[in-house]
Design brief:
By secondary structure, the protein is of the alpha+beta class. It has one domain: Orthogonal Bundle (Arc Repressor Mutant, subunit A). The protein is globular. The termini are far apart. The protein has helices at 8-21, 24-33, 41-48, 52-64, 84-98; strands at 39-40, 68-73, 76-81.
Length: 99
């Protein structure tokens, strides 16, 4: 039987990303961006009915952990998902709820 080799660095990076998304508000932000939308912080906090500071805090965490990317357009910064794989993970979690 072949020995399983684990890359601890990759496992730690994956766990870090999972911890970053493991918050109801951050999951809600991911859901908003799930359709390929690029949204700025104002659009996000208004859609989620939260304070601007709270939205900025959660966006910063998601961006720092490599879940989101951002692009400046004029005075506004637009956020979007770094990978569609995250969308698939969220979809999978949502399907587990139905079971």
């Amino acid at each position: 039987m072949e020995e399983l080799r684990l890359d601890i660095t990759k496992l730690e990076a994956a766990a870090s990303k999972l911890r970053a998304i493991a918050h109801p508000m951050r999951i809600a932000i991911i859901e908003l961006l799930n359709t390929g939308n690029k949204l700025n912080v104002t659009q996000i906090y208004k859609k989620l009915n939260i304070e601007q500071a709270s939205a900025s805090h959660h966006l910063n965490i998601l961006k720092n952990k490599g879940v989101l990317l951002s692009k400046r357009e004029g005075k506004k910064i637009y956020y979007f998902l770094k990978s569609q794989t995250l969308k698939e993970i969220i979809d999978c979690i949502n399907r587990c709820d139905d079971a």
